[in-house]
Amino acid sequence: MRRPIIAGNWKMNKTITEAVDLVRSIRRGLNEVKAADRVLCPPFTALATVSELLQATEIGLGAQDMYWQDKGAYTGEISPLMLKEMCQYVILGHSERRAYFGETDEAVNRKVRAALTHGLTPIVCVGETEAQYDAGQTNAVVGGQVRGCLAGLTAEQVAGLVIAYEPVWAIGTGKAATAAGAGAVIGLTIRGTVAEMVGEAAAQAVRIQYGGSVTPDNIAEFMAHPDIDGALVGGASLKPDFIELVRNGARAKGL
């Protein structure tokens, strides 16, 4: 059975002081949910501080992006070498990076390779826009993103990373996909594409999250689906009831 993983993506929210307050309010409760991996992904400015606050816990820490070079004249960028001392995870290819900063599947692939080289677990995001969804292009778009982002990886590498299916039309809109709909894309399109690329064993081993307007009230519906292994949570991870969300998610898996 794949171990559930629920990650909170804080996006561009929380000053260092606010991050300290939030982590202190949720740290104990999150640490008690042993049945799932829990990951916090604060902004770069708060990573070092949050890392220290999580030292005595089993809660993981993730960054929200990184560049693929180890070092050099890349003003404003963060390298895997800078992250690996603090983080275990890194979110790559989020739809907001694609939409606002022109990130391509090729760029995501280079970042995924760099993360794996340095022992970071990528959370690789894929998902279609509302226009693509309405046009019936979900399978083609998501399958293409999976192929592009995971190109050249071995079965072992793919099995060890995390994929997050985030339909763009459901992110921050309050309009979540249904568990059946998300589960079908995850089970048929994403796992199917992985199986074509590197084999069925890796397809069944890789953990795939759902992301998009996940709340404490609807997390159980998604987690109850056999193909959904967790959630990448945005706004709901910025509040103390993120603990309730994680508990409800683990409980839905019967854990």
What is this entry, summarized?
This protein has helices at 16-31, 44-53, 80-83, 95-101, 105-117, 130-134, 138-149, 155-160, 179-198, 200-205, 219-223, 242-252; strands spanning 5-9, 37-41, 60-63, 89-92, 121-126, 162-165, 207-210, 230-233. It is α/β, with parallel strands linked by helices.
Going across the major beta sheet, what is the strand order?
1-2-3-4-5-6-7-8
β-strand number: 8
Mean pLDDT: 96
Instruction: Fill in the CATH topology.
Output: TIM Barrel
Globally, the shape reads globular
| SSE string | EHEHEHEHHEHHHEHHEHEH
How many domains would you count in the coordinates?
1
Can you say what the CATH homologous superfamily is? Aldolase class I
Task: Report the CATH C-level class.
Answer: Alpha Beta
* Beta-strand share of residues: 5-15%
Q: From the alpha-carbon coordinates, what is the Rg to the nearest angstrom?
A: 17 Å
Going by CATH, the architecture would be Alpha-Beta Barrel
Number of helices: 12
Give the fraction of residues assigned to helices. 40-55%
Secondary-structure-based class equals: alpha/beta
How is the main sheet built?
8 strands, parallel, barrel
CA distance, first residue to last residue: 11 Å
Uncertain stretches of 5 or more adjacent residues: none
